Every structure is written in structure tokens, then in C-alpha cells.
Amino acid sequence: MALSNDQIKHRLTEKFGDQITNVEEPYGMLTFEAPKEINLKVLQFLFDDEELKFRFLTDLAAVHYPAYKGKELAVVYHLHNLIDNCRIRFKVFTDISKPDVFSAVNIFLAANWLEREAYDFYGVNFVGHPNLIRIQNVDEMDYFPQRKEFPLEDQTRIDKDDEMFGRGGSFDFGNRQEDGSPRQISEADKDQTWQ
Amino acid sequence: MARPVSYNIKEKPLEKDISVVEMPEGYQGEGFFASKLSDVVGLARKNSIWPLPFATSCCGIEFMATMASHYDLARFGSERVGFSPRQCDLLMVMGTIAKKMAPVLRQVYLQMAEPRWVIAVGACACSGGIFDTYSVLQGIDQVVPVDVYVPGCPPRPEAILDGFIKIQDLVGKEELRRRNSEHYKKLLESYGIQ
Questions:
Q1: Global ipTM
Q2: B187 FRET partner, CA 20 to 30 A, in A10, A73, A144, B84?
Q3: Full-prediction pTM beyond 0.90?
């Protein structure tokens, strides 16, 4: 008997009540949120329960939402039930000034390296992780690259032309008139789209 | 369906069955041949380069095609590719080198014995390529001195062979004392290599 999203929702609200919020089903995959203090309780419940049996952690990712003040960093767990072939997504949010989340290594061994990656790129501090150090970036890096405030490009390059890459510069791509004054589009041509 | 091939379609007759490298210039007589030592040594070295393929990503696949029978690299003398830097002359860096990999590449370069050459194959090895990011080294010439750059993403096997032929030119024309010269020492010092 396949596990349906309604069954999962029912079991979760039975156990945790209104701590489970934001229940949605984008593309048919049940997604819910819980406060970060109970994240291990929820994961353990999903693991142990004989009807739910979500025993495979597919992915653990972090997301940075600079617009949600007080809840900037999200940790997203993707869980999979191998027996009934059912997937769910579970999110916890945490403040960026104190990004502590309990580590899931005791429940899922896969969380070890996945949490290291989330720490490396977003700075989420997993409490209880045995070896929380950088995994993919250089060890000496002192910032968390995937946070939205940091640029993608390598900052040591001096030869990349801002204009040609669409960053600032002028809108005429350097095509100036002979005396150096910028080219203007006349009022008549302003709305024309050149084919 | 495929377009008909429009180039290289005329069968070219072989000039001779076995092609042999030309002799360097020299003065010869009955039973002797006098030439410059650097020419002879260069001739021997350039036609028996042992490359070390430091193949990291897609350019490594193109290198595999270059080593295969269609674009054979072995006909240029590098039948034996080695994976030990202690035994190789030419470090072929093919592929994206991340900043985390840079000290490893440097260590491999340091383990090579003189004379050694480096060829940077592909856009990522030459300059970081399409990956202008915080994690990719923007060109291996930030950590090792490079002799020949082969641009392309990935370069065709013919382009890799062209780069290899340029390396052969460099090897053939190198003067014997270059590795002990002041100029070379300064170059290595600028990379922090003693």
C-alpha cells in the first residue's frame, strides 16, 4: 500500500501538532517546516515510525534568504522511503547571526559530509558534528562563498572588462562619437526594437 | 544526416614507407659527423618526450582521443606516457584546476627532474576558462611556469598535437645551459621554487 501525502501529514500532526507549519506539495512532493529545536525529534520520528519509515537521507542542503529577517538560513532535508517509494522535504530555518542547528549524523551517516558542505558554503553550525571543517573549498578561506553577499567571480582578475560583461560601464558599449561624447538614441527611435 | 566531409578527402600518397627525422646540420666526412651538441641532444630529446598527462576534466577526454589511434600521439615519440613525475619530461595539464588542487599540481611539478616543460591544454588551464569563480584557479601560470598554452574548450586533438609540436620545437632548440642560467633561476624564484 503506497504511502500517501495525507497519511504522512496526519501522522506528523498527530505527533507534533502545530509545530509542523507551511505544509505544501510542490509538484506532488510533501514539504513542511518545523522549528529548528525539534529537527532531530522529527527526523528520528520519521526514521523509527513503522508506517513512515523514511530511512534514507537523499540530500541535505542549505539556502540563504537574505530577505527573511531572523530566519535567513534554511537547512533542507530530503528524505526517501525506500520501501514505499515516497519522498518528502523537511525545512528548518535559523537566524544568520546564530546559525546553530542540531546535527543529524547520529540518525543518518550520510549527513556527515552533507553537513560539512552546508557549513563550508553557508556557515551553518551543526551542533554535535564530529568534524565540522571545510570540505570543498580551500581550508584558508575565511568567508562562506554561497551567501548572497559574495560575488561569484574570482576577485583577482584585472583583465575582465566590466562593460562587455554587462556590469556597469556605459550603455553604449564604448561606442562613442568622435569627440568622446556619448551616443544618444533620438526620441523618435527610442521605442524601436532593432531586428 | 551527416554533411559530406569537405576537407582532407584526397588520398595523399606516402612519400616513403618509413619516415625518419632529418639530420641536424653538421660537417660530415668518411666515418664521422660533426655537429653541435645542443642540436644532437635536442633532436634526441624532442623525439622521445615522455609526457605526464595531468588530465582533470573534459580536456582529459580530448587527450584520450589524441592518444588513441586516429590522432595518434605516439607517432611523435611519446608512446610511453608516465604517471610518475620522477620519470617524465612534459607535464600536460589538461582541465580545470581548482584552488584546492593548486598545491598538488605544484608538488607534482616540483617532483619532476630538469629539463622539464609544461603545456597548459584548454581554456581552464590557460586562464580559468569559462569558470571565473572563487574556487577555480585562474590559470595554472599562477603556480607553475608554463611553456606552451593551447587554447580551446576543449581544443581539438589536432590543436593538442599542434601544441605538442611547438613543445618539440622548444625542446629541439633549447640551449644546453639554459636550466643553469640566471634568467631561468629568476623565473623559478618568481614562482617561489628553488
A1: 0.72
A2: B84
A3: no
